[in-house]
Every structure is written in C-alpha cells, then in structure tokens.
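DM from R.C. (forwarded with permission)

"hey, sorry to bug you on a friday — could you get me a structure for this? deadline for the figure draft is monday and I only need the backbone to look sensible"
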Amino acid sequence: MAQHDYVLSNQAGAPFRSDLNDALAAAVSNNSGTTAPTTTVAYMLWYDTTLGLLKIRNGANNAWVTIGPLADSSKHEIYVSNAVKVTVNSSGYMGINDTTPSYHLDVNGDINFTGTLRQNGTAFTAAPDSITEGNTSVEVSDSGSNGVMTVTVDGTERMRVSNAGEFLLNTTSPVTNAIATITKSSTALNMLAIGNTGTYLKLGSNDSGSDYQAAINGTAFIYTSNGVDIVLGTGAVETCRLKNSDGTLTFASGKYPVAKNVPKAWVNFSDGFAFGGLVINDSFNVSSVTNPSSNTYRIYFTNAMNDNKYCPSAMISYVSSKAPIVLINSLTTSYIEIVLQNGTSSLNSSITNLALSILGA
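My reply, with the result:
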C-alpha cells in the first residue's frame, strides 16, 4: 500500500530519490490504502483496501466513483452511482440488478427490446390466446372492456363467458338479467338436468318458449338456503309464491289455480256477539266478508272469477238445534251473496262457523 501527495520538494540527491520512489510506488499501486488519499486530483485512481474496490475521482474532484472489485476473482461487478448494477460470476451467469444470478441472464426488473427474440435460433412467439385442434378451440379475447372466453366445437360456438359474468351455452345472446342462458338447437324439448342418473331435477321449455316443465326423479329439491320465499312467474311477473313463513302457496292479484279440482276461493268465518262480531278465521282469495242485512252475507273475492257460472259449496256449524240451510242470493264475478234460513224462516242466532268454497270458475 502506498500513497503520496505527488509534490517533490527541492532537496539533496538521496532524499529526493526516496521521495520520488514513494511517489512512483503510490502511482503503480493505484494509491492503495485503507483510507482515501489526502491529496486528490480529478480522475486519479484509488484502490480501497478496506472494501476491496477500485475507485476513480470524478471530474469535479469532489467525490469517488466506484469502478468495481479487484480482489474477488469469483465475480466481476459494474457499479453505477456507487451501487452494483451488473454482476458476472464465475459460472458465466450475468445478473442485471441481481447480485446472485442463477441463469446466463438474470434480470430483476422490466425488459424492453426491439428486434426478434429467438430460441435455439428460431424466432420466439408469444403464447397464443387460443388452444386449437382442427376446428375445435378454446379462445380468450380481450378488446378493452369486452373480454370474452369462448369454446368452439366442430366449428360452432357452444359455450361463452362474457365480461359481465354471464354464462351462455349454445347461444351468444343472454337473456336479460340472467346469470346463465342455456338453449339447445333442436326441435326437442330444451332441458336442464341437475343431479345424476338416479336422482335429478330437470327444468325445460319447448322451442317456442310457451311451455315450461319440471320433472323430478328420485329425491330432488327446489329450496332456498337463506329462508326466503320461492316465487314462480312468467315474463318477470309473479304468478304464485311458496311462503317460507308457513309453507302456504299464495297467488298474485289476478292469478289463481287453473286445475278444476282446486277451489278458486274459500272462507271460514264466524258471526255473533260471542265471537266479537263478524270474524274471518281463515280464507283463500277472499278479501272481506260483510253482513248487509240479517242472516245475509256477502263474500268478496280478492281476484275476480272468470264468470258467474261457478259452483259454491257451504258447510255450517250453528248454535240452534235446527240445521240451517244456505241460499244463494247473488252470484257475481267479484262477490257471492248468501242468505241463511231454516225452512221458510230467516234465522237470527249466531253462526259458530261457516265454511264456503268455490269450484269451477
């Protein structure tokens, strides 16, 4: 190690020669030392023996710039702004912003290049956005906000997932507000089966869209997991509702069962002082019951009948020992009016219970 101020003083021969030899020793040893030389000039070299780095003075002579290590034969490093930027180790691996490269080129950061990237002399191409075999493919495309994944089989698109999360099977046109749209391009009934061969639920419609079916084989269920009602309807309009609270099936206004053996309306009510007046105990498709005159009752329908050719049927429990009879006083599409009599005389005693049902409307 040797350092010198590179100033040779006027002196006798022997001392001058010694001073000159010291200056030459400092020059040939790159001013090596544990600390920087006290006298510096622009572009002078200094080998920092503490860090094992060769440094050069900058042009302004106000800082040292690291060139790299000299004592470590296992690697070569290139410094920029006194920090390692490029490393080449004894295996020939080069690291850019990576001081421990494991490959012939190890880059820590983004790479931008022009020209052709080649693999074994052959131009390398990016992975395609589709997997294709003949006329069958799985393809992912992205055009801004309209990304889509499609599956094509024998030249015909069979499945699609849209950027809105819609699942389409055998169609490219989703039903409004539907998460999944499934069709079948044939004259047969379009069916969706959930389950396995022995136990399944099938839902479907014909090609005209006018007929919807559900078939259950084995043990299958339609239910809600969070305790809400199950609603059925057409054209986004509710037809009926299976209520979670009590398991009853209710029909929307203007809707009613179409089966001939199902009552279109029924009511069970009581009347009299002992019951606190006129009380509806239970009912279906009945909005109210009134008592316009003695022993006369008018039952109003929630949903009107198709016509007035329906058939009422009544059963009554009465406090009197004589069995009363029910006479139809008026049939309309909006209400039925009945009169209670015993023989030819009207009755004035209290009704314990009267049950009336309507069929055939």
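R.C.: lifesaver. The radius of gyration is 49 Å.
me: no worries. The first strand starts at residue 45 and ends at 48.
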